[in-house]
Amino acid sequence: MVSARASDFPWEVSDDGRATSLTVRLRHQQFVFPWSLFLFAEGNDSSVRVVFHTHVISVQGAGLTFLLSDLAAQVVSALIEPGRPAKFTASAGPSIAGLSVIENK
After folding, report:
1. How far is C-alpha 69 from the geometric centre of its chain's CA atoms?
2. How far apart are CA 4 and CA 27, in angstroms?
3. CA gap 20, 17 in Å, rounded
4. pLDDT tens column, 10-21
5. What order of strands is seen across the sheet that includes strand 21-25?
6. Are the C-beta atoms of residues 35 and 5 closer than 8 Å to each other?
7. Which of 70, 93, 98, 101 is most buried, by the most CB atoms less than 10 A from its CB?
8. What DSSP state is assigned to residue 51?
9. Which residue has the higher pLDDT, 89 or 103?
10. What is the pTM (predicted TM-score) of this model?
11. Residue 82 in contact with residue 97, Cβ under 8 Å?
12. What is the DSSP letter of 46?
């Protein structure tokens, strides 16, 4: 599996192996999910869905296949919602255009 590096991709990964939790930073709210509640992730190059026991995280963007690899290894430590101007900026590599968190009911 190919793994992303923090300097190359728009998500943060743990440098020392497995992360203990995933932090999701939205513009007006922040969530912290322990990896022990992780169920699965699915998606493709433009959309990824990350399912925890209590919430579903949706990521839209480009080049997200690398994100799936890092999620499978549970090394992602943070997903950060881009600022408004960044949503409209073209990127040559992987990028996150949108991020949302929805509570499972």
Report:
1. 11
2. 24
3. 10
4. 899 998 888 999
5. 11-13, 76-80, 21-25, 30-34
6. no
7. 70
8. E
9. 103
10. 0.85
11. yes
12. S
